Amino acid sequence: MTDLINVENLTFVNRRKKARLFSSAKNFELGPINFSLKAGETLAIVGANGSGKSLLAKLLVGLEKPASGHISLNGDVLTKFNQRQRCFNVRMIFQNSNESLNPGITLGGILDEPLRLNTDLNLLQRAAKIEQTLQQVGLMPEHQFFYRHMLSDGQRQRVALARALILNPQVLVADEPFAALDPSVRSQIVNLLMNIQRDLGLGFIFISHNLGIVRHISDKIIVMKGGKIIEAGKTEVIFNWPKEEYTQKLVHTHQALINRQVT
User: Fold this and answer.
1) What is the per-residue pLDDT for 19?
2) What residue stretches are annotated with the ABC transporter domain (predicted)?
3) Is pTM, for the whole model, over 0.85?
């Protein structure tokens, strides 16, 4: 099967303009990053805060420009000349759904904006697409008339997912999408995502600290530390036979937490 997305030798340098108090100015260097993803696969990216996970997500969706390397989608290299292709096909679910939704616009308005700006659909066609997408994520058509403050945390996350899906993408990039949800709602959203992925054949790139969810939904894992990939492989291989000391610590900490919960 052909790779859906392919990342080759991707690098980025975040240059600090000023030194912080009691510390010198240091550049953060990401990469080189290499990985591939097929349709229907889930890749999890794990690592401590500051390892470069969220920065990599921004590079994938075009919010940051790499210093070198490239990202290919269906074999075509994504550049500034085909940003429209990236906009349609690589969509992001942000970490905090509450902050990413405009409180002064109805949900219908939030979902209509990407359709209005990026498609030739007329008003009736856009309205039909909005209703279809709301139902796809487990909401009712009537929710299009709601505002952000009228929704629960779980419903807000469903709206964030709907906004990511509205342009029929091929890849979803999710940066800690479940961090603010309580366990029962989290389970519902995880199952929803897995069902949507199965139905649509989406590629899913999932950034998380929650290794329980990572093990449950991912096909393969990248472990990052200090802007570098220190280990990568199939999920069960990483969990059962981690090679790097850092990965071993992550897995052992996760297993110890599970053991405490069981006892």
Assistant:
1) 55
2) 5-251
3) yes
Tokens of 32: 């080189």
Predicted confidence at residue 16, as pLDDT, reads 65
pLDDT at 1 (0 to 100): 62
- What per-residue confidence (pLDDT) applies to 82? 73
Residue 3 and residue 218: Cα distance in Å, rounded?
A: 17
Q: Side chain identity at 121, as an amino acid letter? A: L
Structural domains in the chain plus CATH codes: 5-16+26-103+169-262 (3.40.50.300)
